[in-house]
Design a protein that fits this description.
The chain is α/β, with parallel strands linked by helices. It folds into two domains: about 10-125, Arc Repressor Mutant, subunit A (Orthogonal Bundle), CATH 1.10.10; about 130-285, Trna Endonuclease, Chain: A, domain 1 (3-Layer(aba) Sandwich). Helices cover about 40% and strands about 20% of the residues. It contains nine helices and twelve strands. Helix 1 (about 35-50) crosses helix 3 (about 70-85) and helix 2 (about 60-65) crosses helix 3. The longest helix is centred in the middle third of the chain and has 18 residues, at about 130-145. It is elongated. The chain starts with about 35 loop residues before the first helix and ends in a 14-residue tail after the last helix.
Length: about 300
């Protein structure tokens, strides 16, 4: 098992909003037709028929359409539409960071200046110091919110629990929360993109090994991920808006209005968000054994 690729994955220090560097010999292999991709292509073509004078970068579009399509479906639809000449794609290299791909209608003549405005915003909120603050903010807000519903923090950066220790990889779990004698291994992801599949797999295995219920607290998740966690006896708490650090509300408003992505800078987590997790927890509690009411004659 130690030779499997996902066991060699190590989490980055921060989560930039760029695509990783891709060499030409690492391009994706040709994939078979997918009805979901075809539907996404129709939706995106109609979108660009309306948005003829605007520019969008790839992950922005993945988030805009995430209510209807998985991120990877939107990504493939964009690639196919660009290859077919229905929309235009531009890619800019960002030395030491990666690339950013942005799309526009083929009839849009003045896209360059708009693209630079988009890149300027993305560069600002993808800076290492800012993304580190995003991660810390998500953990702080949920560490404060969950105890209001009785989920008490029992550990940070956890690699051992209940007399067992995880040693297969260098990963840890962000938090352990406990209520009603049930302990949850929590991973908190305050990012626009989904949790990477490699990381999801490892954290699920960690929870199983340590005897913890998996709890993924994320801005967004694919339904297939949510179902996988559910089948493992865990819960995925989706909070929808990326949480910007305190004091960054003006910047969050600018990003949300300019890029149409769900970001905000709240002082606390909404009660309804935590209540969803509490309701699920209470429903899954072991039912007490019925008392033996047989009378002795």
């Amino acid at each position: 098992m130690a030779s499997e690729s996902y066991l060699r994955w190590e989490p980055p220090d921060y989560d930039p909003d760029y695509e990783p560097d891709i060499r030409e010999d690492e391009e994706e292999e040709e994939q078979p037709p997918d009805p979901a991709v075809d539907r996404a292509k129709d939706t995106i073509r109609a979108f660009f028929d309306v948005e003829r004078t605007n520019v969008f970068y790839k992950q922005q579009l993945e988030v805009i359409f995430e209510g209807d399509f998985f991120h990877w479906v939107t990504s493939r639809a964009l690639s196919e539409l660009a290859a077919e000449g229905h929309i235009a794609v531009e890619r800019e290299e960002l030395p030491g960071t990666g690339n950013i791909s942005y799309y526009h209608a083929t009839t849009h003549r003045y896209w360059r200046r708009q693209a630079q405005d988009v890149i300027a915003l993305v560069t600002q909120f993808s800076a290492p110091a800012f993304t580190a603050g995003l991660g810390a903010q998500g953990e702080l807000l949920f560490e404060a919110a969950l105890p209001t519903a009785g989920f008490l923090p029992k550990g940070r950066k956890v690699r051992a629990h209940g007399g067992k220790e995880w040693s297969e990889t260098e990963h840890d779990l962000d938090r352990v929360f406990e209520r009603d004698g049930i302990a949850y291994g929590a991973e908190i992801k305050n990012t626009l993109k989904y949790i990477p599949r490699d990381e999801l797999t490892v954290k699920m295995r960690m929870c199983k090994h340590l005897g913890l219920r998996p709890l993924f607290i994320v801005r967004a998740a694919a339904k297939s991920y949510i179902n996988e966690v559910r089948l493992a006896g865990g819960f995925t708490l989706v909070f929808k808006y990326q949480l910007y650090p305190f004091g960054q509300k003006a910047f969050a408003d600018t990003v949300r209005e300019a890029l149409r992505v769900p970001v905000d800078s709240p002082a606390r987590i909404a009660d309804g968000t935590v209540q969803r997790f509490l309701n699920w927890h209470l429903k899954t509690l072991p039912k007490p054994k019925a008392e033996n009411k047989d009378e002795v004659v």
